[in-house]
Amino acid sequence: MDKAELKKKVDDLFEDLPEEADWDDLMYKIYVRQSIEHGLKDVEEDRVKSHEEIKKKYHQK
Prior knowledge:
Blueprint: H1 3-15, H2 23-44, H3 51-57
């Protein structure tokens, strides 16, 4: 991702924060956004397991 694209994403996250937001609120939004992007990348690259596969692996019903 280039600098301009990253800046746009950060600006969007910042704009969605309430007026009384602090650093922790911003950091949390960044963390959540990053987690979602990693998850979507895992799906795209077929690095996920179905719920049924996980249950079978751990023998849960």
